[in-house]
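Risk register update: the risk of archive-format incompatibility is retired. Evidence:
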Amino acid sequence: MRPSDDEIQEEIAAHLRMAIADKMARGASREEAERAARAEFGNVTHVAEVTRDVRGGLWLERLGQDLRYGWRALRRTPAFTTVAVATLALAIGANSAVFTVVNSVLLQPLPFRDPGRLYAVSYLPTDLPFELPPGVDDRLYLEYRQHVSRFDRITGYQRQDLTLSGVRDATRLPGARASATFFEVLGVQPALGRAFSADEDQAGTDRVVILSDRLWRARFNGDRAILGKAITLDGITRTVVGVMPRGFTFPAASQVWTPLALRLDPGNSFLFPVIGRLRADATPEQAKSELEAIALAMPPDPRAGGIKPVARIIPLKDTLIGKVRTSLLVLVGAVAFVLLIACANVANLLLIRAATRRHEMAVRIALGASRARIARQLLTESLLIALIGAAAGIFVAFAGVRALLALAPAGRIPRIDEVHLNGWVLGFTLVVAVITGILFGVVPARSGARREPQEALGQGTRLVGGSHHGLRSVLVTAEITLALMLLSGAGLMIKSFLMIRSLDTGYDASRVVTMSVNLPEIAYPDAARLRAFHTALLEQLTRIRGASAVGAVAFRPMSDVGIMGDFMVDGPTPLPHGYTVDKPTVSPGYFAALGIRLLAGRDFTPADRAGAPGVVVVSQTVARRLWPNERAVGKRISMQDQPGPNDWLTVIGVVNDVVQDAQLSRHSTIYLPYLQTSSAGFINQMTFVVRPQPAAGNLAPAMRGALRDVDPAVPAQALQTMDQSMMDTIAEPVFQMRLLATFACLALFLAALGTYGVLAYDVTERTREIGLRMALGATPGTVLRMVLGRTATLAFTGAALGVAGSLMLTRVLTRWLFEVKPTDPATLTAVTVVLLVAAFLAGLLPAQRAAGDRGLTTLLLRD
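Archived output:
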């Protein structure tokens, strides 16, 4: 038990009494004995403090004293406290919000059993002109799962969208086809019912379905009697056998799962993702070698066309977050810059505050306080500010996470449903608070503790001064440097966005409305029925009041899907090696509806139907590449590798090039008429395009009504304008732009605030010097130039360092920039000017105050 102060004082008094009695016994008088005993014993107060420290508990007592004193000191300066806490709350809150997303998406393990043993299996070419996600073909999968030994089990799945009908309005749901071992491999079982059985991934026995918890509650009211009931998906009746646990939506926000019934087709290759659970005694390298051995032992696949696949074993988590990792790390770097700027800002405020408290600190030192105690007191105040700022930052983080999720592009950030504030985030916030408190508090604490009492107590005799003037300048320069680097990144993203918005896409998307329709195979099993549906819907859309042009396309521009391939050219000139084109299927009127200019020949007409001579329309690039200096109309091409007499298609028209894909590049394109398309897979999903008349209102409700009139069981998808489609295409760089711009503006504000604070204090500190100058004849203009000259020094030094840093760091943004280089001189110049103007404005007010304060001379003379 720790002794009380009274007990320690009583013990010291007893030692003194014994020493005095001993000396008196040796013949000394009482006065002499007391004087000698006290001289030998030393400083009583110091001995008492050492005794308390040795016996324990003094540090806790002193901490309590420091906290109480620090809280009172902060309450006495509400303006300083408010500014410092608000600055830290914004910076720490922004960091906590971004960490919440990063923690949930990148750091937390996947919500599966022992997720570290889950790997994606891939055996695909890697040197193709387009990127394929990891996967294997159906033939290898069936062979591999029979002979694999390095994995406990493997499973395959395929993403699919299905139309749920018969339960309120028909709706399109994201889902997946999965092997019977799918849930077992992941280590997640249904919360209600069962998973697929082994015989249910065979053709003919696959009419079952498993629902997500969200779909079960939203559409079926959480009815536990749903098991065994039938629902209709894509026109097929399926029996519900299970409901997954809350939060399970793998892959990609799936709401329904159906069995993956493989049917090998000698003429087609079916690729899909495959996952394996690695055995505890196996390594990924061993699994890769086994995959290669099994693949090489199989008979050659004639469908491969001589392309050599590459075996890869990839951690499942990397396949889910690989593309978004860099994006999130860029945001981490951006908010870290904001935090550093905030730390520099608060450190400057504390240096200024310490300078104003130098007399107080000198008095405390003169009264016996040690320099370590002074430093500890000032550091405690810094930590107290940081902790209060972190507590306020939690509320900022809560709002920030909601804003991040609202701004995040749909489907682009994996595991977004798992993003929420939790104990890890609170712990991160606490650690950040402690680190920042030490970071911005240690220099002011040392400054206050190292000041000599004589220097501080004699401040009244000084005319000029400014302790730690250079350190404050360094901190402001660092703030300006970091702010310019963030502004450069934001400026590049903004310019890239403006370049995209001004891009000549080759068509006129103004006010054009699109509606996608995906037809179920069971109701529309062949091309003839599909064409009949499309024709009927086009007729209904034509009757809409306010529609000026109507058309349809199988794969609309700016989409992430499409068909690309080669073809044959009739004539002596062979097709260039590796030359491929986009092959969208369109209806008559599509070019007029989307505003694609017809350069030569004619458009498709209803006469270009099945049984009529085959025709195509080519883009301008195709015409120039294949028939330079010749007329393309009348030439013949074929989509068959070995065309027969009836396989040749005549070019009837040439249109201008358009931006067809999500990469915003213009591809060579050959348009095929949907009325002559015999393959159902090419036209089962069509996007209908309606161009409204100038005075027409919103056509979306009428388009939905037209679809309902043709088939009420088919839901409308992506009912939006083409401008919205473009924004969806560039959603990820726009997301990056908005966040970087937000953080850059916050950094600019903090840097300007820091510049203003330092200059304002310098003016206050140099009051006597300025008064003396004006008394000796200096004009207000001279004083104004002196203060603005210091502003210019800080701003230009920080800008120069910031430009150098930007040239190195903005390269990480290359993947999100469109026709803008990371070192774009115009952008760097523009953001530098913005920052210099902000710094100038921050220094203008203190400069005007210094130049216009006529009372300075009077004050000096009076003193």
